Amino acid sequence: MPQAPSESNPLSVARVSEVLKRTIKGLGAVWVEGEITEWKENRGNVYGRLRDLDGGDDSLSFNIWSSVRAQLQQDFHTGDHVVLLAEPDYWTARGSLSFNVKRIKTAGLGELMQQLEKLRHKLAAEGLFAEDRKLPLPFLPGCIGLITGRDSDAEKDVLKNTLERWPGIPFEIVHTAVQGVNAASQVTQAIQQLDADPRVDVIIIARGGGDFLDLLPFSDETLVRTAAATKTPIISAIGHEADRPLLDEVADYRASTPTGAAKRVVPSYIEEHEIVTGAVGRIRARLTHTVEQEYAALSNTRSRPVLQRPESMFEQQEIDVQRLAVRSAELVDRQLYNAASDLNSQLSQLRALSPLATLKRGYAMVLNSEAKPISKTSEVQPGDTLKLRVSDGEITAIAE
Which residues, in sequence order, are bridge partners of residue 365? Predict the structure, then answer.
């Protein structure tokens, strides 16, 4: 383990500076309110100092680089009360702490920001910003609802870019105030109107940016809750990165600019046409290849002799059947002949053994009255009735 810093093992200045710089940078950007006590410009950059409003000695150094200075829409001077968003930075070469300003506004906005953040946390806790409740945008809407200022650049940008990507797509446009005291209520009513229109498949709310106060209507609680309750997907295209209104959080899709909303709301007709054309070409090629393969297989099958003369399949079977029929007849005749011969032989033997054959030679069979054969004279008494059986019948006789 590394040895802890001590008198005998001190840290180097570079090491301390590195730790301080990393720790300070890790704090991130913060909003700070105070009074400007110094404001010096040099080559587009501003170097100033901000003092605490309580009048004490506490102060902070800040820098506004030329890229940020060029975006400021108002001038600032020594003595101004301001609120600024700044990121702390530690200058190791001089061992000094300064703040790089990202945004700066006149004082008075701090309370509004605090209220806005409180509302943001409240709505987030209710789940209005949750990703799983956001609706998917349609691939190609049948009609696009647009809420924007009349004759505004935002309206022109949305229409121009959308129709370039998909010509002829219909719009249902509702013009409202997009800043000022009436903006929130008018935009809310427009959302309800378009959400109730069965033709509208998606709603774009567009404005071309603005400062914090200009965008406050789009953080109105009623407006935000109305947007969250719609059954129609909403695209927020307010067009401001630093001060995102709450509508951006609850919208189903947030576009950084109205042009970005136009590019998201519809696909590119040219790109989709190329995709479909390519798919049709691939399908046609696949079908052509399959048909050619099947035709070749069919031609190969049809070229076989058996299909050129289908009757040849049965010729051999016919010959075999005829041969078997002749053979069967021969076998049956032979069996019948052998059976007849055997029967005649058995009849001859039977006739030779039969008493009838003896009777036909002039012999007779003597029977008593009970039709039992008599073989001895002792079995007959004078006067007994006898029957003499000859070959063609019986003769009754009396014994003497």
Answer: 389
